[in-house]
Automatic annotation (TrEMBL):
Alphabetic keyword roster: Periplasm, Plasmid, Signal
CC per GO annotation: periplasmic space
Record localization: Periplasm
Pfam family, one: SBP_bac_1
Coiled-coil intervals: none
Family, as annotated: Belongs to the bacterial solute-binding protein 1 family.
Signal peptide extent: 1-35
InterPro entries associated with the record: Bact_solute-bd_prot1, SBP
PANTHER family (UniProt xref): ARABINOSE-BINDING PROTEIN-RELATED, BLR3389 PROTEIN
The protein's name in its UniProt record: Sugar ABC transporter substrate-binding protein
Length: 435
């Protein structure tokens, strides 16, 4: 695996520094020159502007620590998921890598591939721990140990094209319930507009619908019981009803033609090109649709609105319950103290504020919230602040094996190839196999 050096000019400066250090060592009779500590950083960020911001932060750190060399490596999302397990058992493992938390992180911690960062967070009276929101640290903790450094929090919600909504006579403020959402889908179709950009090719984008519907129908109590293997598990009537809700959406054929083969970047492009009125996506959808649009510009920010995933009438869940990520940087067993020190620098309030201003993230660093100036991101931050239950992505929280089944089942149900009952049974079977 090749890691990219962050700054060529800095390398030359470092060579000169090391040469001078070597000369001093010879004069003093020392046996070795000052060594450079290489910190390998594995990520899956597609946006070059975001990577440039990281490189800027890495350069600032290197300038303060000339004996540290930050090297970055990119892997595409699906390749990242496929290769990471093998990579973590190899001699070429990174010092840290992007993590979605949840069951996947827990499983990785149980393999012995990761480093417990609890001591680093608790040092100096918990100075570093207290620099992050309590929820972000808690969400990356298993069995009393913290297995990743907090980075950002995320939120899945609907984004819509204001012009297409106006053309169809749909008002976002009227979409409060699942029934009213389905009515909006019908109105858009009647106006000759594709209602939703869907990414069935990678499957996980469709699991957002099933997950949110489970949350709305069953609430936190039902989902927690299913995760613990209690009661009827994933065969709970509320979970089966959620699948039936999803099937009802599928019968309306709400997605663009060919959605079952569409990747997530292609799906963002469909929305950015104005070929679909809505997309259920991450908090940074506005920026990513622009990058994936055919003209590289996409919809103007002024033409994009957002709304919460609607409530389900009679469901136990609340509209203020939210689905999204809690992302961190998982530190591998071989990582140096310099790697952890750099992560503390990367995620400090100043740098998180800077990244928030660049619309890269919703920060977890205490005091960095004032950096969220993008209007749509600010709306997401406001919704998160009022969240009554923030649930990590189901396919992450339930672990890789069960998560894959959740993603598969979600696509099968919405496309009419599987009943909700059968889907719930498959998830329950996968869950029991993991116990």
């Amino acid at each position: 695996m090749t890691y990219i050096r962050t700054n060529a000019a800095l390398r030359a400066k470092r060579i000169a520094f090391l040469a001078a250090a070597a000369g001093i060592s010879v004069m003093l009779g020392a046996g070795a020159a000052c060594a450079t500590t290489v910190v390998k950083w594995l990520h899956l960020e597609l946006d070059p502007a975001y990577v440039a911001k990281w490189e800027e932060i890495a350069k600032a750190y290197e300038e303060k620590h000339p004996d540290v060399d930050i090297q970055m490596q990119f892997l595409e999302n699906e390749a990242f998921k496929a290769k990471l397990p093998t990579l973590l058992q190899s001699d070429d493992l990174p010092d840290f890598f992007f993590s979605w938390g949840g069951g996947v992180l827990k499983q990785q911690s149980e393999t012995g591939a990761l480093q417990d960062v609890t001591a680093a967070l608790n040092a100096d009276g918990g100075k570093l721990r207290n620099a992050y929101s309590a929820a972000s640290v808690s969400g990356l903790t298993f069995d009393g140990k913290v297995w990743a450094m907090p980075y950002k929090v995320g939120l899945v919600s609907f984004f819509y094209n204001k012009e297409l909504f106006a053309k169809a006579g749909v008002k976002a403020e009227d979409i409060k319930t699942w029934a009213s959402f389905l009515e909006a889908v019908k109105k858009l179709k009647d106006a000759g507009i594709v209602p939703i950009a869907g990414g069935g090719g990678e499957k996980w984008p469709i699991h957002f619908y099933w997950s949110y519907l489970v949350m709305r129908e069953g609430g936190e109590k039902v989902f927690d019981a299913a995760k613990k293997g209690e009661g009827e598990g994933f065969l709970d009537p509320a979970i089966i009803k959620a699948g039936e809700d999803l099937a009802e959406l599928g019968k309306l054929e709400p997605f663009q033609p060919g959605y079952l083969g569409a990747t997530w970047p292609q799906t963002l492009g469909v929305f950015g090109d104005g070929k679909a009125a809505m997309i259920l996506g991450f908090e940074n959808t506005e920026a990513n649709q622009r990058k994936n649009a055919g003209d590289g510009k996409g919809l103007s920010p002024e033409n994009i609105g957002r709304f919460n995933f609607p409530a389900v009438e009679g469901g136990a869940g609340k509209v203020t319950d939210t689905l999204g990520g809690l992302n961190g940087w998982a530190v591998t067993k071989k990582a140096s103290k310099e790697a952890i020190d750099f992560l503390a620098f990367l995620t400090n309030a100043e740098n998180e504020r800077s990244m928030a201003k660049a619309a890269m993230l919703l920060p977890v660093a205490v005091g960095a919230d004032d950096g969220v100036t993008n209007s749509l991101l600010a709306q997401s931050a406001k919704q998160l602040a009022a969240s009554t239950w923030h649930q990590n992505y189901f396919d992450q929280d339930l672990g890789a094996a069960v998560g894959r089944v959740v993603n598969d089942v979600s696509v099968e149900i919405v496309s009419g190839q599987m009943s909700s009952q059968d889907g719930a049974q498959q998830i329950q079977d996968a869950f029991e196999l993991e116990q």
